[in-house]
Amino acid sequence: MKALPAPRSAAIPKSWSNLDWASVFAAIIYPALGVLGLIAAAIIGWSFSGVTLVWWYIPLALFTGAVTLVICNVGIGVMHRVWQHKAGELRWPAQVITAFNCVVAMQGKLKDWVNYHSQHHRLSDRPGDPHNPAEGKLWAWMGWLFWRDPNDLKRPMAMWLRENRSVVIFDRHYSLITILVHLVAPALIYLAVWLLGGSLILTLILHASAIVARGVQFHATILGINVFGHLKTPAWADYLLALLTGGEAFHDHHHDEPRSALHLPRRGLINRLVDYNGTALLIFEKLRWARNLEIAPQFASQPRLTAR
């Protein structure tokens, strides 16, 4: 019988010298900057008479955050279900949207994402699983991101992704595209608002709200799925996490039916609102941007909502 690998949390050295600062920035520093931006906007608005804060900034900020969260989830969910588990095929418009949304979500190179997730399914909850919650909930949440085995990052791109030009291009230029999306584009928006005489304080609030929402989505995914997804949780927690992850948090189902494009039944408004990553795939299919979607038999036509 083949021996299992050593537990990752014990085998990977943990020190400041091998800390993955890109992951630290995505998980902690960038969301904190968003919170500081909202605090700064409130202080400026209340401290300077020439700056106006209007009540409708709040619902607009919440809407901006919600849209950002959905964009991030649709990128991760579609990538996860199609490019990881081969639940269908995407044509180039859906490929570009998916890859771009993954950049917005700060998911890193898709090569590494797929390789890590492949190990997770192969060794789920056993030694060698990159984020095995049995090795510690904090490790399964963020430790595995902060301290990486260099050999993991040297793994080649999965064979089935090498023929996908969108994945190859986005991975090859990931750092540049990330800088353009998260730094250059916001700077140009601030400049345009200033030149046009718009409200910079509103721009700051909306920008900060988008950053915070991306952070919420980021942690809902790595904490809600890697940790809570492998524990016994009440149904209300499953559906709350599903809303924050686009349906990815129905993790028991996913391990039972990894190739399913849907994580809830096809029919039913609630199903399609909660599992909106699957709904995005159905929309792509209607637009002929996706084809050959595989759906778990129990979800193909079942009209009622089923809990885990």
Report on this structure.
- InterPro entries: Acyl-CoA_DS.
- GO terms for molecular function: oxidoreductase activity, acting on paired donors, with oxidation of a pair of donors resulting in the reduction of molecular oxygen to two molecules of water.
- The chain is mainly alpha-helical and 308 residues long.
- The chain has one domain.
- 64% of the residues lie in helices and 1% in strands.
- The protein has a two-stranded antiparallel sheet with strand order 1-2.
- The chain starts with 7 loop residues before the first helix and ends in an 8-residue tail after the last helix.
- The relative contact order is 0.16.
